[in-house]
Amino acid sequence: xxxxxxxxxxxxxxxxxxxxxxxxxxxxxxxxxxxxxxxxxxxxxxxxxxxxxxxxxxxxxxxxxxxxxxxxxxxxxxxxxxxxxxxxxxxxxxxxxxxxxxxxxxxxxxxxxxxxxxxxxxxxxxxxxxxxxxxxxxxxxxxxxxxxxxxxxxxxxxxxxxxxxxxxxxxxxxxxxxxxxxxxxxxxxxxxxxxxxxxxxxxxxxxxxxxxxxxxxxxxxxxxxxxxxxxxxxxxxxxxxxxxxxxxxxxxxxxxxxxxxxxxxxxxxxxxxxxxxxxxxxxxxxxxxxxxxxxxxxxxxxxxxxxxxxxxxxxxxxxxxxxxxxxxxxxxxxxxxxxxxxxxxxxxxxxxxxxxxxxxxx
Length: 362
Ligand SMILES: Nc1ncnc2c1ncn2[C@@H]1O[C@H](COP(=O)(O)OP(=O)(O)OP(=O)(O)O)[C@@H](O)[C@H]1O
Hints:
This protein is of the alpha+beta class.
């Protein structure tokens, strides 16, 4: 069942149109991540769903009800912001109970909900403390708790972890995932951190310039990005992009990357013949390339090592291949030296090909 439905949503700030006739359906219990670079409109979209902005055109439905003109408090949503927005003079317990008291809930019910949220978030021992006596991670837990006690259908998160250091962020990310697995509420989560998106989401909506570029499961977005923007935005280290031209012949297509340098597209999962002679961009992730000292039987090209970056478990080896530079994830601990002559093999089943003029996937 659809939990949140956004229909033909347009939002303008004065003459600046930030969201353009946007449509989005989010299933009940789904963890949907809105991902994109700064300024792409993801917080604006979340704020529209929350009712914090008056939309210019379109409609929003939550749990089947048209809430387009409803007040935020009447939408059945709980929101968690990047800034914890806790009341500094109140204890954790009071921060959690405040909204419920205003809503007129009976004392017993309030106590029950706080107890449950405190247990889920492991903050039972912190209930009497003030926000200033908490760490950043604990404060963010309380902020999540405040949304939790409202007993809502839909949680909205706006970059809730971005104020935390990397280690804490990784810990809370796991906790959020666990929380979603236990509660099974619909969650809409804004971030510009692709790791957060890939690890948390059931589906990711990648946005650019107020438009959803791709809405898909994380691995589909990772393996089959619909355009050059999505391909470049997702993945760290980034996908390698090699400019070339497409040559379709009787024996199959290939990409000409330079004089005497061509990569056969045998194994690529789409028809490419109709792009014969056109400029294309061949995209391949560092982990879908293999370096060998000797030529292999697969589609491989000679390359020269520029440098090796050790990354702990493995390393990133930068290669020069004619006029192209590319990085390869290698199971190596400093065995490559600048100037080493190697061969690089391409995993075509995981490669991407883009039309250089439209930047769309072929
Ligand atoms: N109140 C406002 N008045 C005018 N322009 C605004 C307002 N709020 C946001 N904008 C503009 O709308 C666009 C989208 O902003 P939004 O905050 O939604 O982006 P975002 O993708 O969430 O970025 P970030 O990750 O930096 O928060 C930006 O160009 C921003 O400058």
